[in-house]
Amino acid sequence: MEEVEESKDEGGGAGWVMTFADLMSLLMCFFVLLLSFSEMDVLKFKRLAGSMSQAFGVQAQVRANDPPKGTSIIAQEFSPGTPRPTPLNEIWQKTTDESRNSLDVACQDMGSSNTGESGDAEQMVVVDKIQDLVGETEQEAIDLATALSKEIAAGVLEIETAGRRIILRIKEHGSFPSGTAELSANFKPVLKIIRQQLRDMDGRIIVEGHTDDDPINTPRFRSNWALSSARAVSVAHGLFEDPELDQERFTITGFADTKPLVSNANAAGKARNRRVEVVIHQGLGADVKNDLEILKNEFPATYENVRQELIQRFELSPEEIF
């Protein structure tokens, strides 16, 4: 009987195992080399860690005497508020119950001097609205000055703003012969530019005549009152030549020498005081008037603070406010 020789197992595994092991070794060496070549940006890492900590809310462990003050990423971007808009410079969170899962979002205005008092939010709303209106007035004054730049450079005109008023000052030089109320022919093209600019400007238009303190007594003008009023009327008639300017917007007054710009002690001062002013009163608008009425009725102390701020900061006249 023949004996069958048993096959001996030579050991080892499948052929791909060695290839896989070599590949893993090479990959490990590759990543070790990458790590050795890299530089750790500690500052960037800390920023990343801080952003992650804010994104996941407040920390789980807090000290008993230190309520959590963290701000989640949602509270930073979206916060509940009242229907009335309020100017808020900072959003923060507060709580007295450390066991609560979420924190109440509270808002603090860092710009108000009366933080914590009733009516502060309303006060800031009114002030911000008026600041925007005053900015619009200043921009329109700049546009008017640009259109009349040649006349301003020649010393014929001056333009300035005071709150919601634009004051176009027409000097006697270049507009009226001395002692008369007849506009010079050279000034009529200037009136045409003024008419074009007034078309696009809202508000009441007041034409005011002014003189120096030298008395006048002629067959036509018995006093400076007559001369100042006649000059204001002449300028107004020049503006009325544009049919698109509603004459109901106009008020014409003469002040004689009662409102000088400077002292009448010398000839230069007298010349500066002889003028006609076209004042555009743009007002505060019904929306701001309504807000002021609410403040006046509900928060009298706050209303008085707002009133004083508007007079001092924005040069509004008391009549413009109330």
Q: Note the run of SSEs as H and E.
A: HHHEEHHEEHEHEHEHHH
How many distinct helices?
11
Biggest sheet record: 5 strands, mixed
| Fraction in beta strands | 5-15%
Total strand segments: 7
Q: Determine the fraction of residues in helical runs and give it as a percent range.
A: 40-55%
Task: Name the CATH architecture of the domain at 165-281.
Answer: 2-Layer Sandwich
Radius of gyration: 39 Å
Q: Span between N and C termini?
A: 132 Å
Output the CATH topology of the domain at 165-281. 60s Ribosomal Protein L30, Chain: A
Overall shape: elongated
Low-confidence stretches: 85-94, 102-118
Characterization of this structure:
It is a single chain. By secondary structure, the protein is α+β, with helices and mostly antiparallel strands. Among the domains are: 68-111, no CATH class; 165-281, 60s Ribosomal Protein L30, Chain: A (2-Layer Sandwich). It is 45% helix and 13% strand. The protein contains 11 helices and 7 strands. The strands form 2 sheets. It has a 5-stranded mixed β-sheet with strand order 3-4-7-5-6. The chain has a two-stranded antiparallel sheet with strand order 1-2. Helix 7 links the parallel strand 5 and strand 6 (250-254). The longest helix is centred in the middle third of the chain and has 28 residues, at 120-147. It is elongated. It starts with 14 loop residues before the first helix and ends with a helix.
